[in-house]
Every structure is written in structure tokens, then in C-alpha cells.
């Protein structure tokens, strides 16, 4: 069981990093669209 967990650990780390990057990208996209809406108004 311990061997399985340590093998999956890099995968979980990469997945977490990817999710964080995607989250930051979506946040910046949201802030950009909010600025765009304010420019329209």
C-alpha cells in the first residue's frame, strides 16, 4: 500500500499544480471580463 501511495504522489502533485494554474487563469479571465463590462457601462 505504501509503495502505491508514493507512486501516485507525483501525479497528485502535478494535478494540484495544474488545478492551481487553471484556477489562476480563470480568476484573471473573470477580472478581465469584469473590467470589460465596466468599460461598456
Q: Helix- and strand-based class?
A: mainly alpha
**SS element count, helices:** 1
Mean pLDDT: 86
| Relative helix content | over 70%
Question: How do the helices and strands follow one another from N- to C-terminus?
Answer: H
Shape: rod-shaped
Total beta-strand segments: 0
The major pleated sheet works out as: none
Please state roughly what percent of the residues sit in beta strands, choosing from under 5%, 5-15%, 15-25%, 25-35%, 35-45% or over 45%.
under 5%
Spans of at least 5 consecutive residues with low confidence: none
Distance between the termini: 58 Å
Please give the radius of gyration in angstroms. 18 Å
Which oligomerization state do the chains in this entry correspond to? Answer: single chain
What's the helix and strand layout?
Elements: H1 2-40
What can you see in these coordinates?
The protein is an all-alpha fold. The protein has one helix at residues 2-40.
In short:
The chain is mostly helical and 41 residues long. It contains one helix and no strands.
Amino acid at each position: 500500500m505504501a509503495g502505491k501511495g508514493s507512486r501516485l504522489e507525483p501525479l497528485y502533485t502535478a494535478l494540484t499544480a495544474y488545478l492551481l494554474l487553471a484556477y489562476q487563469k480563470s480568476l484573471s479571465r473573470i477580472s478581465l471580463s469584469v473590467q470589460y463590462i465596466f468599460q461598456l457601462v
